Amino acid sequence: MDFTAIDFETATRRSDSACQLAAVRVRGGEIVDSACWLIRPRPFVFSPANIQIHGITPGMVREEPEFGELWPEIQSTLGDDCLIAHNASFDLGVLMACLESHDHPVPDMQYSCTRAIARRTWPQQPRFGLKPLSDWLGIRFRHHDALEDSIACAKIALAAAEDSGATSLETLESKLSLSRGSAGAWGKKGPTSRRASTRRKSSPRRSPSRAPEVAIAGSTMTSSTISNSTAGSASFAIEPPRPCGISDSGVDLQRLMIRADFIRPLEGRKVVFTGVLQKLQREEAEMLTSRCGGKCQSSVSRKTDLVVVGDPDSRTVQASRTMSVKEATARQLAAEGAPLRIMTEHEFLEMIIAM
């Protein structure tokens, strides 16, 4: 997965009124670099409605370069990458309008759109805006800040690739039957479906309860360029637990799996499962552990970090249940001072969400 995610903010309704641009470079499925520019629009006019949306005021960009001055640096940053944006027609339109307004030739470009990608990856979702999708995936960000919007856009593309089993943008587009958009001096043509219907068979609607969100570390970027950013996986932090997709009937495993790849809350931990799991199949639990960065063990030892005991069936009296050999060994080691934790399946799932 190699691409560059971009996002523009504009001073007015005019497409050539860019006042902020961000670019986030992805290589091998990881965010490796980012840049953000504040831009003095020409003419130097701001709409109060636009200011209310993104919070960028004339005073913040009065001394910044115009787009034409910044273009060589922007062009060098974008390179020949396929550009990805959410509602990409808007962002490519702003880019092309700014180039034309500042008398720069429009280069040939390839681009894709995470809204189109999301529609084909998760057709059961009711809304496909950047904020609703980010909320569903557990990504928290400050909407209408170009850098944070670009990071969220990149994360949505990577989540779609993970969910589709795609290891490259080309493979993802092929799996979704989505043609790549293109633009140049002749105009632009957005990504389109390669077949009449690309909607996959919808799975049953999940519980509307929401998982805790992932907070993108860092505040508003106001310097002209931020390079060598650590805005990838290392810059994510978790908020305290809130109601999530765990219910009496099970879990939203798809969302947990996607989130696990971003957060890896069990990185380096050794986990043992024992007893009958009620909310997950044993294979699902082991897969989730692996996606969270943990390693499953078949037996308990002093190297074990977590022992997950299947929640007792509601028909079984807790006091009369039979303790497994693994659980008994874990309790003995814990009593001897071994630093391992013993928890129920429900506590295990809540811990993953809370970390």
Automatic annotation (TrEMBL):
Biased region (Low complexity) positions are 219-230
| Residue ranges, compositional bias (Basic residues) | 196-208
UniProt cross-references to InterPro entries, sorted A to Z: BRCT_dom, BRCT_dom_sf, Ribonucl_H, RNaseH-like_sf, RNaseH_sf
Location of the region described as Disordered in the Swiss-Prot/TrEMBL record: 181-240
Kindly give the Gene3D superfamilies that the UniProt entry links to this protein: BRCT domain, Ribonuclease H-like superfamily/Ribonuclease H
Spell out the SMART domains in the cross-references: BRCT, EXOIII
Tell me the superkingdom of the source: Bacteria
Q: Which UniProt keywords apply?
A: Ligase, Nucleotidyltransferase, Transferase
Cross-referenced SUPFAM superfamilies: BRCT domain, Ribonuclease H-like
Query: Per its UniProt record, what CDD domains does this chain match?
Result: BRCT_DNA_ligase_like, DNA_pol_III_epsilon_like
UniProt-recorded Gene Ontology molecular function terms: 3'-5' exonuclease activity; DNA ligase (NAD+) activity; DNA-directed DNA polymerase activity; nucleic acid binding
Instruction: Output a single Gene Ontology CC term carried by this record.
Output: cytosol
Q: What is its EC number?
A: 2.7.7.7, 6.5.1.2
A Pfam family this protein belongs to? Answer: BRCT
Q: Which residues form the BRCT domain?
A: 261-355
Q: What does this protein do?
A: DNA polymerase III is a complex, multichain enzyme responsible for most of the replicative synthesis in bacteria. The epsilon subunit contain the editing function and is a proofreading 3'-5' exonuclease.
* PANTHER family in the cross-refs: DNA POLYMERASE III SUBUNIT EPSILON (PTHR30231), EXONUCLEASE (PTHR30231:SF42)
- Subunit details: DNA polymerase III contains a core (composed of alpha, epsilon and theta chains) that associates with a tau subunit. This core dimerizes to form the POLIII' complex. PolIII' associates with the gamma complex (composed of gamma, delta, delta', psi and chi chains) and with the beta chain to form the complete DNA polymerase III complex.
Q: What is this protein called?
A: Probable DNA polymerase III polC-type
Gene encoding the protein: dnaQ
